[in-house]
Amino acid sequence: MLCALLLCRRYSGLEKNPSIQNVNINSRIAAASLIALLAACTESTAPTAPDIRQPGIPANTASAVCTVDVKALSLTCTEAKAAAPANGLKQAIVFGGQDLYVKLTSSGTSYDGGTQVLRSDVTVQNLLQQMIGTTDGMTPTGVKIFLHTGPTVTSGTGIVTVANADGTSTFTAGGQPYFNYSQIIDSYEISSQREWQFNVPSTVDTFVFTVLISADVADEMATYLDRLWKGTASTAWENAANWNGGVPIATSTVAVPPPSMITSGNQPVLGSSTTIKNFRVALGSTLGLGGNTLTITDNLDAPGTISDGIVRMTGSDVFLGGNLAKLEITGNAKTQRSTFATGAVSVSGSLSVRDNALSISIQ
Fold it and tell me: Exposed, middle or buried, 151 (CB in 10 Å: 0-12/13-18/19+)?
């Protein structure tokens, strides 16, 4: 998992839990390797009610700084002071939101003591309700992840550098190295993997860096997020006071953010069957269906948990993944993460599992 901010160019028209604490790591080598991608990044966590219609870092947006203690084999995430947009950034807007606007995930992290190179495969998941990396929806312009600060050694001695950047450019400062994902990433889609490499002397135990994302979008005036759960009044899905953007309707893209962004502690519970377009439940959060049916006409991503009812997916060529109760596929869906169902799974359309596991456990 990486922590990220997102930077979207305006002139063109445009997993794991970030709040995890005390995560044990199996070995000192693993801890030292993971520090680049897990512990060293700064996560911008949006406030309980971020502005979902315009990008930008609100004044009260806090960052979370993750630190690995190699000897204790632990990862602890703590809040830092508010982030702020870079000065002189005229044609771009920076806005925060690892696990809210975007999610970066690393896997296969390794360290070669001979070459002193640390490697990790990193994917980008777009959590906006429109595609990124394009100005017209057809021509890819790339999604660039660049180092905003660092790398900075925090334990041990030596200098860490990026080993395989696709180039350097001026984003928030001059000469910033970046990794380019040369594809269009659709709403909720997880990108292809891109290997990141760092030159890391064997004398370095930990180091830190922050990343930002620069990407075009087709419509800069469109809502970046649509309906965002905040649970201010209660757990009732149907209560408008619980939503940023209003009660979801059939065309809504709906997100239940991580628990760290829901200060009330209230998780949503559906009071009656309803239909929406896209739906995401972040890791650690839940949706109780209350015995009802949630019909989703486009994509579903549920690292968190959906329970006590039926999820029905009706769209064509849509993404699916996460933890569900009963599942009905009447359209054409494909998994892009492991999927676990605690109820029956019925498919009258088609379901492509690809390389991800589909597990069914009926109690």
Answer: buried
